[in-house]
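A sample follows:
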Amino acid sequence: MRSILVIRAQEEDVEVTEAAMNHLAQIGTSTSLRYAISLVTAAGLVARRRGASEVEVADVVKVYSLLSDVKRSADAMTQYEQQFLYHVPDASGAVPGVAAPAGPLPDEEESDEAME
């Protein structure tokens, strides 16, 4: 895992400290190689943005908090599933777990008149 990440960092022209590379390898082992590779690129951008020549552990931690891996994405979907639009309305037209709009929705004619 680590050797692949080192090669990828070289190909991306990203200098990475030993500690940051170890952290990336640990993340890759617990998530996926693809995710760890994406963190190399993103951490390189963060490091350049702050004017550094090398990616440090703090850069890796920052991009890890911003970019979700598959498991964290699935966990978030499960946790917040009631708030997403894909829920099917019941017979009355209400979506379970979602508050109804505050007032009536405008008719198409009213919308057209408002635009004129």
